[in-house]
Amino acid sequence: MAPYDLEVERAVREVVALGAKKVMIQAPDGLKQYLGELCKSLEAAGVSPLLSTEPCYGGCDVADGAPVGADAIIHVGHFKFGGGPDPLPTVYITAKHLGGDRDLPAKAARAMKARGFRKVGLVSNAQHIHLIGEFREALAAEGLEGVVDGETGGLVLGCRVGAATAVEGAVDALVFIGGGDFHALGVALACEKEVFIADPYRGEVRETAQMKRRALAKRWWLIAEASKAKTFGVVIVTKPRQMDLAMAERLSSDLRRRGKVCYLLAGGDVSWDRLVGFAFIDAFIVVGCPRIATDNQECFSKPVLNAGEALEVIKRL
Prior knowledge:
CATH superfamily of the largest domain: Diphthamide synthesis DPH1/DPH2 domain 2
CATH class of the largest domain: Alpha Beta
Shape: flat
Structural class: alpha/beta
Mean pLDDT: 93
């Protein structure tokens, strides 16, 4: 049995209700291995599944299955991102995590109490947002208060951490419930208060302070290096929910007014393999998901910044 709830019955029911005959299924790489049952159930309902081999980074990265004849999309692992229309009718499956350490809420509560915190902000990702209630109860059992943003319910995305910043002023620290460092680092970089990870996969509570210091040191060094560049490439990410043509043009114009040579580039997949061929460019600015630059710098041989960091460069010129 898959350790995630792919809501197979709901997914099939909604796809059939849409009248779809062929559906493209997209999921993050870590969830692709669990899609077999969903495919079999779709086929049993008379719907042909088509599995996307592309990486999937969030609800901002919905596939367009129309070129291969898909009538609908099943997007696994994320909530819908933004209010705009989807390329095709899309069913969102958040893939709730079914496993994990059941004692983790109590562990986290004891850890927060041991550090002298009284009010703790709680945030999580799509796979673990259902655990926030358990964490609030565990904190209350230790005499602490768990604080959750009412508008978002505590949900954070890679680049949207308003659930954390909204409550930061009312808490002593924040706890991100989920695995890995990706979401937690985004929260830590956006907040001054200490951020901890309650990891259901590893059954541990860990700090983010050292990770944050390393990330900030690296980003400020890259900003300084990019400030020395003579030639910039401003990369427009063409994925519909990431594309910001106005910002790309603004950055390009500002750089040129400061005497820099600037080229506009465009593409859906931004990686060093795609950028390395432009050897005449000294530094790149990715106008799209801000985490493309911050999370992949070890793969880049030249400074690669996001739009916010580029604005800091422009202030220095």
